[in-house]
Structure formats: structure tokens, C-alpha cells
Amino acid sequence: MTQTPTWLIANWKMNGDAPRVRSWAFAVNAALGAHSAHVKVVFCPPAVYITDAMAALPPNAQLALGAQNCHAASKGAHTGELSASMLLDAGCDYVILGHSERRAAGETDDQVHAKALTAMAAGLMPVICVGESLAEYEQKRTNAVLNAQLSLLEDLPRGGYLIAYEPIWAIGSGRTPSMTEINAAHSHIKSVLGSETAVLYGGSVNAANAGEILAQSQVAGALIGGASLEIESMCAMITSASTRGK
Ligand code: PEP
Q1: Whose CA is nearest to atom 8 of ligand 1?
Q2: Which of 114, 125, 127 is nearest to 74 (CA)?
């Protein structure tokens, strides 16, 4: 069994409501119980529900909380934004940065890098998303795209962040790369950022394929969107993660 935990990061995006957040947090934390030595689950609901998730958890809960974004500035005139320290105050330990849905809305590598620095300074662990588009994949440019996205991250303190390799074409599509391709991309990321970097896979992970994906030697965990919304499938993925046997 692995000495390092297998990460499962549940990204709810703009889904859910307060009752669902509370019941999910309570149930998944309870299911995590016996597996918590081997599996680390991070729940990232919409930011307005982070305090609902906190309120649903018992003292000494194993379920960790995360946000889906933060601002690069620590405070100021940024209407509608949230700072890393505010997220920490609300109960978060993690923040997803550079998700492809945010990059598609204009977020740049420079902004992701600045946000990561601010988040780490505040005490949050960033989960930094990288990955290629379908056209780039078909043109066999995955490593070149990763190189560009990773180059600014090389100065970040090693071990202070997680990377999520998320091919854009795999997100929400039901398609995944082959296991060989996943291992190759993760190995490439480690060759750039250091072999100790924890690299998670994201893109259409679900209860049916989590076991195989999490068993890959280069995969430290998964970032899960749609399939994380249901308690039952999340619990099935926790079971897969706890038995991956590395
Ligand atoms: C994601 O939101 O990052 C994601 C991987 O979504 P899905 O699991 O639905 O593909």
C-alpha cells in the first residue's frame, strides 16, 4: 500500500445547492473514515457553500475543503473576487487554479503563477491544472503545450502544490487518453517540475474507470468533475483509491 495518500479532488464547478453540499460533505466524510490513511479527499463546492460544507462536518473531519479559484492580490478593489486568505478563513486548505474552463475565459499562465504564489503565501495548497486541447492532442503537441504551461511554475516551492493533468478534450466528454498516454504525460510533467511532484489525472474519471486510472504508476490521484456530484459514485471512487495497492 502506498505511503503517500491518493488524492481525490471533487470539483463541483457551478453545481449544487446548500442542502446537497451539506449532505454530500457529511456522507463522504463518513465514508472516508477507515480509508483516510490512504486517501485524501478534497471537496471543492461553489465558494458560497464552503461554509455549509464546514458546518456539516464533525470535529476532526478527514474531508478537506478547497475552492475553485482565488485572486492573485491579497486584498483590494476587485469586485466579485475572493482572496486566498478569505478562502482559508472559510475553511479551505486547497484551491484549484488554472482550470481549463477559467483559461478559456481568458486566464493566462502568468495569472495562474501569480495566484499560486498568493495562495501558497496564504497557506493554501494550489491544485494547478494543465492540459492540451483536442487539436493540440491530435497534432501530438501535448508535451509542447505542457512545457509552456509549466515553465512559469518551475520556481514554485516543490511539494507546495499539486498538478492536475487534464486534457481539455477529456473534460466532461466521456473520453479519456489511453493509460500509456496518461503515464507519458505525467512522466513528462515530473521531468519538468521534479520527480517528487504529485500529478493527478482529470478528465471523465468516474466510478467505472477510477480503479484502472488510479492504478497507473505515475498517477497520484484524480480531479473529478461530473462523477463527483453523486455520493454513491464518489464513495465508489474512494474505495478504488484505497485499494490501488501502490
Ligand atoms: C474537471 O472539472 O476538471 C473535470 C475533470 O470534469 P469531468 O470529471 O466531468 O470530466
Answers
A1: 225
A2: 114
| 9 vs 238: CA distance, rounded Å | 11
Task: Pick the catalytic residue from 99, 113, 186, 188.
Answer: 99
Q: Coil, strand, or helix at residue 101?
A: helix
Q: Which atom of ligand 1 is nearest to the CA of 205?
A: 8
Cell 485499494, residue located = 243
Residues with CB under 6 Å of ligand 1 are 11, 13, 99, 166, 171-172, 202-205, 223-227
Residues, the chain: 246
The rounded distance, in Å, linking the Cα atoms of 78 and 69 is 14
Instruction: Tell me what the mean pLDDT of segment 197-208 comes to.
Output: 98
- Ramachandran region, residue 102 (left: φ > 0; alpha: ψ -120 to 50; beta: rest): alpha
pLDDT at 2: 43
* Ligand 1 atom nearest to CA at 172: 10
CATH placement of domain 6-242: 3.20.20.70
Q: Determine whether 166 is an active site residue.
A: yes
Q: How far is the CA of 226 from the centre of ligand 1 (A)?
A: 6
Residue 47: per-residue pLDDT: 98
Residue 151 cell numbers, joined:
515553465
| C-alpha span between 227 and 114 (Å, rounded) | 30
> What is the per-residue pLDDT for 243?
85
The yes-or-no answer on residue 138 being catalytic is no
Name the residue at shortest CA distance from atom 3 of ligand 1.
225
Q: Is the pLDDT of residue 126 over 70?
A: yes
**Mean pLDDT in residue range 206-228:** 97
Domains of the chain, residue spans: 6-242
Residue recorded with cell 493527478: 200
